[in-house]
Amino acid sequence: MVRVHDGLYRLFGLQLPYAALYRFKASVADYYIDKQKEILLTLVNGPRLYIDETVVNLRAESGYVWCITDGEMVYYFYRSSREASFLLDMLKDFKGIMVSDFYTGYDSVPCAQQRCLIHLMRDFNEEMEKNPYDDGLRILAAKFSVLIRAVVETIDKRGYQKKYLQTHKRSVDEFSEWVSERQFDSVPAEKLRNRIQKYRDKLFAFLDYDDVCWNNTNAEHAIKPFARHRETADGTFTARSLQEYLTILSIAETCKGRGEDFLTFLLADEDGHGSFRPKMG
Question: From edge to edge, which strands make up the β-sheet containing 48-57?
Answer without folding.
Answer: 74-79, 62-69, 48-57, 97-100, 112-115
